[in-house]
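Re: that backbone. Tokens:
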């Protein structure tokens, strides 16, 4: 039977992490295989602070953990089936896409090229600072199009496939999202294709002054999607279809 990581244990891990007393090597040495068997169960009161705790734990130790997280946690910590981390897939696809775009002499700017966020280590809210700085990079570069690569998650593990989001009040964003969505659907031979979708709450979409599309490449909550998304050859296919969609957008307008 797997152990249950209690609220007190989570708080203790966070405290040790913040103080520097707990490191990856020490965690491997002291707890070893037991770490892989932890199941997170929802306490009676599950606050934003607890979610932040889990985000930090998985940011540092995600590769050591192989756990079937409930979806309400999986979505918040960007962890998929088998402990897959969203940020790793995002970066891998973005780097492949950058290579393709640069081959056509397109000026490409990535908000990150390494496994590091755009925040200061002592920032009170690292995620908020990271998002603000991404917007600052976009504004400085005066991009003609912003493509933000992500992976999706949903409570129903049967849901799968790529989906593109655009800001509800952006006509150019809608046009770009439609082209990218159709290109992904056709190029990846999606048998139940999704449609591009408007959104007025995502920070990147709201704050960006230029046409912006969030590309959710697939669902980490779906076992089949999750398996494909970590495969290098499938990531190449994803990057190529996004590349083709970007080219079609610029050729159309």
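Recovered sequence:
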């Amino acid at each position: 039977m797997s152990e249950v990581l209690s609220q007190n244990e989570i708080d203790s891990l966070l405290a040790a992490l913040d103080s520097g007393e707990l490191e990856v090597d020490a965690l491997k040495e002291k707890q070893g295989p037991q770490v892989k068997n932890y199941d997170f169960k929802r306490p009676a009161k599950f606050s934003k602070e607890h979610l932040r705790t889990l985000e930090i734990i998985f940011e540092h130790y995600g590769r050591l953990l192989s756990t079937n997280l409930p979806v309400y946690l999986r979505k918040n910590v960007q962890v998929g089936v088998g402990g897959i981390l969203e940020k790793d897939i995002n970066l891998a696809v973005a780097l492949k896409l950058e290579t393709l775009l640069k081959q056509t002499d397109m000026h490409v700017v990535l908000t990150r090229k390494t496994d590091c966020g755009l925040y200061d280590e002592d920032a009170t809210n690292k995620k908020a600072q990271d998002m603000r700085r991404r917007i600052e990079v976009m504004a400085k570069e005066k991009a003609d199009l912003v493509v933000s690569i992500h992976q999706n998650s949903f409570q129903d593990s049967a849901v799968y496939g790529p989906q593109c989001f655009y800001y509800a009040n952006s006509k150019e964003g809608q046009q770009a999202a439609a082209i990218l969505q159709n290109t992904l659907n056709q190029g990846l031979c999606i048998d139940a294709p999704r449609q591009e979708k408007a959104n007025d709450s995502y920070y990147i979409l709201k704050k960006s002054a230029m046409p912006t599309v969030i590309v959710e490449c697939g669902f980490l909550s779906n076992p089949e999607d999750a398996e494909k998304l970590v495969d290098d050859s499938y990531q190449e296919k994803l990057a190529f279809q996004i590349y083709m969609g970007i080219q079609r957008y610029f050729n159309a307008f």
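The beta strands are 146-152, 163-167, 197-199, 212-219. The chain has a mean pLDDT of 75.
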